[in-house]
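note to self: dont lose this again. the chain is below, predicted strucutre after it. 157 aa total, dont forget to put it in the shared folder this time
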Amino acid sequence: MVEKVPMTAGGHVSLEQELKHLKHVMRPSIIKAIEEARAHGDLSENAEYHAAKEQQGMTEGRIQQIEGSLSRSEIIDPKDLSGSKVVFACTVTIADEDDKEVTYQIVGVDEVDVSAGKISFSSPIGRALIGRNLGDEVEVKTPGGETYYEIVKIEFI
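---
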């Protein structure tokens, strides 16, 4: 059985855009760079050729990764959800012991952008929050130690 990859609709669109860019912009430019480097002669000591081949390998690997995620994706729209439990795709506001609040949306691993407040459901904070209720105190174990948070708001936006 194929393991589904949960993601939000926005994350799915972002991956599709990245895939299109990699296939239609990056791939052709890398092929051109390899052709130009080959024209310089001896490939064994051609740094430009080796750099272009390395970039090609990384790009092709990312293309395969994205195609795999998209083919197994299960799109979850937070607007279709409700309740008082933290679930995938919801937006949750938590307060630390000093009452400093921070808001996160729980997203898939391919959508993570901590600076935009998007954390993975498999991150330490994400794992600690999933399934918890409004008002619950949550212990998050991190390499820096244990931190406690209180869930102060759950939204489905």
